Amino acid sequence: MAQQPRLYNIRPHIYVERQEIRKNLEATKDLLFKLARQKRGFKSGRKDFDSYLDYSYMLENAEKKPRFTSPSMIDLRSEYAFDDKKALSRRSSDSLSREQWLERKLQIAQKMFNGPKPPPAWSPSLDDLKLRQRSKDDLIDQRLRPQRLPLPSSLPPEDEGKVKSLLKQSGVIAKFAREQVLDKDLVRLMPGSWLNDEIINYYGALILGRSDESKENGDNGIINGVANARKGKVLNVHYFTTFFWQKLTREGYEKGRLAKWTKKVDLFSKDIVLIPVNHNNTHWTAAAINFRQKRMESYDSMDLDRSAVFKVLRGYLDAEHRNKKGIPFDFTGWEDYILKDTPQQENGYDCGVFTCQFLESLSRGEETFNFSQDDIPYLRRRMIWEIGHSTLRTDP
């Protein structure tokens, strides 16, 4: 006799349990979304918030167990995206792990927003006093600068037409220095897509090119968004491509032969060294070695723990100094720096755009960032124009 297919809806003890799990997941997401909008000022919709949760879940799992080895950033959301139909076909323990993760996030959020504020430090250390003084100096510097104008919502009509034209082209779209962008790369700047190595490295090459040109012409450039058209300083920067971090973390300074990367560059004469960081091929962040401020810096649009980044940066700088100068690097007065109000993404795919904009702002000596999640659609169109014309715009 032919075997009859099993129907889960006639087994209440399993079917009802799984329905309850799915209901609990949605209820937890609803609460998290409500807290995010009320307490964090989250402006994006529920669909973007769900992608943000899926992305956070993916990043935490990727940190514990790297799964991807491709040298190029690809769209991996489907690997971790939560699908109700797929979840019902898995074991209940698989779904519970997602439910427990969401419950833990909810508990942390509620504790953070409802708990008492920690008491102020009674006796600050010398380092604390130095940081406070530096913060005051930075605040004074920001007040002395002209107020930056908000970013526009769109490009001028003529430039928007050029962007549309660029997106219709095929083959090689642009070449600059040793980098090039193809049509398949450029479309990654359309909404909802992750950026790959080619886009980020091309943008980094434009940043480096502007810095070199500024030195040659004796022109300090213009800070984007500054009122009264006051000129600001374009820093003397060095940019490492996305493959530098992979070499450094996978092979190390000696085995990766990273001394050759700076054979014609005196890294210690630069104002700042800019480094795009690919974390387990799942997330982009920006790192910097800031010689002007004596800081190791990390800028993350997901605000995750990046203490490992600082450790790697310090190890590299010491190894580079020993190789080029013959002595250990003196870290006296140096600090690990994370900007308190670093702009945060509200979805699971804009990290690459945030990273490019962090690097571009840092190359102009900016201490804060003049953009947020609301500005990303405009910045994606702007980056298409900039790549297509191989130049960085000087208007807001």
From TrEMBL:
Pfam families membership: Peptidase_C48 (PF02902)
InterPro entries per UniProt: Papain-like_cys_pep_sf, Peptidase_C48_C
Name this protein carries in UniProt: Cysteine proteinase
Keywords: Hydrolase, Protease, Thiol protease
GO molecular function: deSUMOylase activity
An individual GO BP term: regulation of macromolecule metabolic process
PANTHER family linked to this entry: GH15225P-RELATED (PTHR12606:SF141), SENTRIN/SUMO-SPECIFIC PROTEASE (PTHR12606)
GO cellular component labels: nucleus
Family that this chain belongs to: Belongs to the peptidase C48 family.
Domain Ubiquitin-like protease family profile: 179-362
SUPFAM superfamilies reported for this sequence: Cysteine proteinases
